[in-house]
Amino acid sequence: MLELELDFEALGEVFSTTQSAPFTVIEIEVEQAATFADRLGVPVRRCYISDPSLQARIADTSVSARTIIESKLPDRGSTMAGDFGEILTALFHAASEHPGVVLDPKKWRLKQDRTKPAPGSDVVQMILPQWPAASADDRIICAEVKTKSTSGTSTPIASAIADSEKDSSRRFVKTLNWLKERAIDTGLSTISIEQLDRFIHPVDHPEATREFRAVAVICASLVADELIGVVPPPPSERALIVISVPDLKETYERVFDAALLTAEDVEDVA
């Protein structure tokens, strides 16, 4: 996540833990959420296209930075909401691990259709403290993320738990192999084939830790109702994390508007 050039120590102050058992509840204050557009516009854009790739596309196509960024970002609606929930989860993990370094393949860069979610497990991140040497301290995090920004019948907590079970059965391994295929085909700038193989072929390395997480990113005004009757999974199987965001819909729309506006800075540099 270093390529996002975020101050993860400062970002960690955004996530306030208000409950840690039997599951975790994280609250983001209104004042902190109000800063997201300014703080996250560039990092969110980089989740979809890196600076070098953006500059290369501008040079190769003579198309404006804004047009290229528009071709990457989702439209307003459920996909934008879901993508924001996934990115926020990835940032939360990176801030929680700081000063440790989290490696993330940025699955949002690998979409074939910007109007749809990326395939496979939602968030896959690696912590490899002694790399290039594999060690027993190596960890891989796999999170299933559900986002609810407006009132409705969806049940993000129960759905995140249920779909996280799919990750720990088969989907997680399929996702790692899909990422390896992408690495071989087009290349991944943030994770190597060797790092993927460290977890695809675990018997060839010291035993590592797999952590499965069910994450629900919910508008703060809806959280109390969504928490009623929650039955968390056994902690030994997966962690349940609920992240409360004030005015979630307005917040993520402002962030994506800011991500598009970063084109102006890119074009000024060019």
Structural commentary:
- The two termini are about 25 Å apart.
- The protein contains ten helices and six strands, in the order αββαααααββααβαβα.
- The protein has one domain.
- Strands 1-2-6-5-4-3 form a six-stranded mixed β-sheet.
- It is an alpha/beta fold.
- A hairpin with a 4-residue loop joins strand 1 (about 15-20) and strand 2 (about 25).
Salient structural properties:
single chain, 270 residues, alpha/beta, DUF1837 domain-containing protein, AbpA_HamA_C
Beta percentage is 15-25%
Strand element count: 6
Overall geometry? globular
Arithmetic mean pLDDT: 95
Total of DSSP H or I helical runs spanning 4+ residues: 10
Rounded to the nearest angstrom, the distance between the terminal CA atoms is: 25 Å
Return Rg in Å. 18 Å
Helix-strand category: alpha/beta
Q: Which H/E pattern describes the elements?
A: HEEHHHHHEEHHEHEH
Number of domains: 1
The helical percent reads 40-55%
Which oligomerization state do the chains in this entry correspond to?
Answer: single chain
Instruction: Report on the biggest sheet.
Output: 6 strands, mixed
Low-confidence stretches: none
For the largest sheet, list the strands in their spatial order: 1-2-6-5-4-3
